[in-house]
Amino acid sequence: MISHLRGRVAELGRNHVTLDVNGVGYRVHMPDKALKILAETKGEVNIHTKLFYSQHEGIFEFFGFLKREDLDFFDLLNSVSGIGPKKALNIMANIEADDLIMAVVKGDPVYLNKITSLGEKTSQRLVVELKDKIKKAEVSKYSKIDLSKEGEAIDALVSLGYSQKQAQEALKQVSKKSVNLEEKVRGALKILNKN
User: Fold this and answer.
1) pLDDT digits (tens, 9 = 90+) for 102-122
2) Which of 11, 14, 93, 117 could potentially form a cystine with 18 if both were Cys, beta carbons 3.0 to 4.6 Å apart?
3) In CATH, which of 1.10.260.40, 1.20.120.790, 3.40.50.2300, 1.10.150.20 is domain 69-142?
């Protein structure tokens, strides 16, 4: 198994990078955030990888991440039945690992459904199947956080005419110290108005 690739960025695609490793170009599917970082990177980069065989297309595909923690998160998502590597990458584009773990600890598939745009059944399956896989330390860390406020904040911003994606991005930037709904929405509106 190839666990990482080190080389220079030869080409950036919409959802992948072609990495030149000693004259051989490897196409690696990556999250948007990582691709944006690579667009500004000069010199060699190290990408943590996972290799999958796509039976449907009859090809091997690399999926890569700049941080080992992101690869671990990807593996966690792939361990859920019905979540393949491309769907896991799509989920990662919409939710941070901490937010997903919070939703699983809280047993809140509705929050996952709002944040990730996954179907109701898939969100429920994520919560059920990941509950036992998340370490006890994570459970105590996130058990006191109220996710309903986050979901209500998204609903409030959408009702004001912003897209769900815009609302999610703005709320990610709002200080974690903003605990009540009003503070979250006000903070997100400031960020959205700057853009």
Assistant:
1) 788 878 888 887 777 788 888
2) 11
3) 1.10.150.20
